[in-house]
Amino acid sequence: MTEQHNPSTDVSTTSGGQQLETFPDPGVPEHKLRMADKDPKAAKRAERQTVVLFVISIIGTIGMMVAYFAIRPDGTTVGTRNANLALGLGLFFALMGIGLAAVHWAKTLMSDHEHVDERHDVRGTDEVRAAAIAELKAGAEDSGIARRPVLKGAVVTALALFPLTIAVPLISSVGGDWDISKFKHTIWRKGTRLAIDPNGRLIKAADVTIGSVVHVIPDVPEEERRSHEWITEKAKAVVLIVRLDPADLKESEERKSWSHDGIVAYSKICTHVGCPVALYEQQTHHLLCPCHQSTFDVADGAKVVFGPAKRPLPQLPIAVDDEGYLIAQDDFDEPVGPSYWGRLK
């Protein structure tokens, strides 16, 4: 006796033309009513909760706008941190409110009936297109937004205000300082001594042992470190020095005078997107950027050996003064950091 199967309800798996298994199509599970579907008070409560979440987004957007204009970076670490924290919190609540409100709305108030649509050609007939429009209207009706004016007002206001978090900073930057020549140079000068970051202690070549790594900044007067411009200038000038066995160095002829007894100095700013490159592997002489894993070979001109970076780290030519302190011979030979418009190399 041969068992008959209904092809519309059975699903089979085949391999090489051979049927392996047949099982019944479970179909769409039985729909279960939610609390808001059965209790008008629960529906009203869910609506109020959704409105509150949209209001949180509105407050977050307004808060970010206030913070953008009222809490400006003053050039100090604390001031910059506070300004970024205020902007970040405002943007967080603006996005979080919209996201949570949309999810809560969909889970508690919008229609949750499952529908099965058969696949069809990309361009449907006029009747199908008309039916799709009708379905969209029915979906809008199911969302209940038409009969919930407070919810409608909250969602419209939140969505209308949120773009300000992006537009205002962009618009306010128009007419600002777009002098890209500032990117081409740092405060390193001929004779500037190398100092340990952040305490500012000067470095003698004899203090740097083979395999050691030191994070370096320019030695500048104390009053300059207290200026508003110091953080910006320091961010461009940060350097990492490494001492290798001179026999391990692969130096081109024009750069052999840029190192001192195996000590080389390179910019800490990754040439990919500007993250701090600071993870050194002594055995391979590789420097790793923790953000996107760009890897540079310190023994071979800090060339890229792995990752998305496209250019080697700029090298700072160094020497030793009469007192044995490490000094810069000049500024970097090229702009530090990622690419930008107008950059030729």
From TrEMBL:
Residues 1-21 have a biased composition (Polar residues). The chain crosses the membrane at residues 51-71, 83-103, 150-171. InterPro entries: QcrA_N, Rieske_2Fe-2S, Rieske_2Fe-2S_sf, Rieske_Fe-S_prot, Rieske_Fe-S_prot_C. Its cofactor is [2Fe-2S] cluster. The keyword Cell cycle does not apply. It is found in: Cell membrane. Residues 1-41 are annotated as: Disordered. It is a multi-pass membrane protein. One of its GO terms (molecular function) is monooxygenase activity. One of its GO terms (cellular component) is plasma membrane. Pfam families: QcrA_N, Rieske. CDD domains: Rieske (cd03467). This is Cytochrome bc1 complex Rieske iron-sulfur subunit.
